[in-house]
Amino acid sequence: MKNSKREKILKAAIKIFARDGFFNAKVEDIARQAGVATGTTYLYFKNKDDLLISIFEEEMMPIIKSAEDAIGAADMPDGELRAFIAHHLQLVEENADMAHLLQVELRQSSKFLVNYSGTKFKEYLDLISDILKKGQSGGYFKEEINSTLFKQIVFGAVDQISTNWTISKTRKISLKTSADQICMVILDGVLKHS
């Protein structure tokens, strides 16, 4: 995000949505947090739903890039899968407000659920299916596993752990341990056994 009023509004919205919840958040509070007039917010965004979708789209770009970097640093397909899962859960832990927004609040926007085409989200999920396909072509992973189903299973696992951690009052769940256990379960199912 560029350093501008629009960026300030987006950053303020992340804080307000995480603090008050999507439904309870007021555009006036977001504007106040951003240090702009309420009307200025409407110059950049049509409504709260538009603001939420914009946050998601813009925040997904650096998330995808950092996930690609983490995957690229691994040497084998099983290492790439471990890197993706660990990276996702690490991002959740390091960015609690954003995690709450993406894990909880985003799902409360009916406009997002109905109208979002999912281009950035699909790109993120495709990182998972690409790992499987690479592992299959290299003889590491079982060929009969469907890549679409695989990415849904992997993301479903990390998403559920992320949501549990995000909404937990104590956050006693170790995301690093969770990443290791998710990898153990999934890799046991996909690795070819000699």
How many domains make up the coordinates? 2
Number of helices: 10
Mean pLDDT: 89
Our estimate of the beta-strand percent is under 5%
Explain this structure to me?
This protein is mainly alpha-helical and 194 residues long. The chain folds into 2 domains: 1-45, Homeodomain-like (Arc Repressor Mutant, subunit A), CATH 1.10.10; 48-190, Tetracycline Repressor, domain 2 (Orthogonal Bundle), CATH 1.10.357.10. Helices cover 75% and strands 0% of the residues. The protein contains 10 helices and no strands. The chain has helices at 5-20, 27-34, 38-44, 48-72, 77-94, 96-105, 110-115, 119-137, 147-167, 175-190. The longest helix is centred in the N-terminal third of the chain and has 25 residues, at 48-72. It is elongated. The protein starts with a helix and ends with a helix. The model has no long low-confidence stretch (mean pLDDT 89).
